[in-house]
Amino acid sequence: MQNVKGTYDFWGQEQALRQNIQATLQDVFELYDFEGTNTTILNELELLTSKYAGGDEIIKEMYQLTDQGERRLGLRYDLTIPFAKLIAMNPGFSLPIKRYEMGKVFRDGPVKRGRLREFQQCDVDVVGIQGPEAEAELMQLAIEAFRRLEIPVTVKWNNRRFLGELLESIGVPSQEMLSVMLTLDKIEKIGPTGIQEELNTKGLSKQVTDAILEFAAKKDWTFEDVCSKYDGLQGLPGAMEVRALQVLIQSLGLSQACPFDPFLSRGLSFYTGTVYEIFDASLSYPSSLGAGGRYDAIIGQLIGRNDIDYPTVGLSFGMESIMEMLKNRANPLPVASVLVIPIGDTASEALSIAAELRANGIRTRTDFTKRKLKKSLASASSQGIRYVILIGEDEARARKVCLKDMNEMTESVVTAEEALYCIEHSL
Question: Which of 81, 162, 300, 380 has its CA 20 to 30 A from that of 88?
């Protein structure tokens, strides 16, 4: 018996931490007025492999299957394409739409720290705002979410359209544009030598390769530096989008937390404008903690309606990476406030008072193990349970219980109502 490689079961302390992280993210999402959604895990293969979806780079990692009706299906590899399908199938939705979703996605890719094959994503998306206001608000949301998680982050950002304009200005042919972008996106991982090795396989001229390497050699580019170095970019659409977002970021005081990174492009092919990636600012964790960007074209293209405008921007939080950052922090597992122990034939009375406690919002555990009372009390004390209610047959006949305060080391025989009152006013 073993789990499939790259999949894990979660319980106890680890599951409690996961739930706390999700609750924190959900609180922030709803604070920013995003509404919850739940999209399909199983989808038509044609949708997931569409040229308007993830692109060739993701198809090789997709889980594909056939059902009993010989339909070709696949498991979702992200939450974006199923959401795009949802919007495309409901053209009557009024815009703008702000949604969030938390759910599992599946990728048959390499397994490493913080990267699994079955993993949780937590996404927010905005449909119907051209930008850059939507991008800026998502950056604010990301910084607020990680502040609550007590993780200092850097939100690096760029614009795919602007990067394309830059590469075009130095002579990169259109058919190699995406490939060169993906190579530059790996500069932190493979360095200048790795960049050169990849460029040498693309059939580019030496002049173009040298120009790309010169661009990649400088790490501290500002947007103004790039426009000054490469003539003719200033008035182009991508450059204007970068400038507009940069002005907003500066006015919000986010420049230090949200630096411009001209090499960033993200792996998925559907991004059309702004892209961003979130990293641990302390540099103790190398992988990204979240990422996203603008994908204006997907929804309209999926339904064959390029004349309908669905400007969309999204952000995904990486649950597994966040877990890797936080799992060693002290995070006590939530415990019951009350333990109810029946003594003798009093199971019915024990269940009744437990139900009453729970109805009043008090986390309650029952103990029907029939082990020695001394062991049950020792267990309750070691787990931090404040109160123990004992119900023996004599107490049941008198309609009373024995209430033990494990902190004060006291006990008293009281009615169920008195026990409830005491517990409610001391927790």
Answer: 162
